[in-house]
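hey so u asked for the seq, here:
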Amino acid sequence: MGIDGYYWKRTPSGLADTEGGLYLRPRDLAKIGYLFLKNGKWEGAQIVSPEWVKLSVTPAINVSPTVKYGLKWWLFPYNDGSSNLVWAGSGFGGQMPIILTEYDMVVVFTGWNILDGKRLSHRVAIDKSIAAITDRKRN
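ran it, structure tokens below
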């Protein structure tokens, strides 16, 4: 996928910290979102099985009445609570990829704020992204 500028934090025993230790450039984070948007394919090659993509973005846990969690993806309903779900990652300080399947789009936010109440929320990021798309369609 051409992701070569990354850093993967290690645990004291030397294992990769897969819970939250991967540092990527925004473009490379978008590539991972795009891989899932395209059902696991990258430039014609199947990198991740379609079955895994589907399973990972299927709600497995109800986090709240509106927020679900799949396998490493946060799932947020949009458009007035419809059955459509946005897939999103959640990085330290508010960094996140957001995949809007209905719009065939990946958005990456790289905001960095670790202060309580100052982080960009997924809900605000999703709503603003959809508003920007739909506002453009109307004009």
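Helices lie at 26-37, 50-56, 122-138. Strands lie at 7-8, 22-23, 41-42, 45-46, 61-62, 68-69, 74-77, 85-88, 96-100, 105-109.
lmk if thats what u needed
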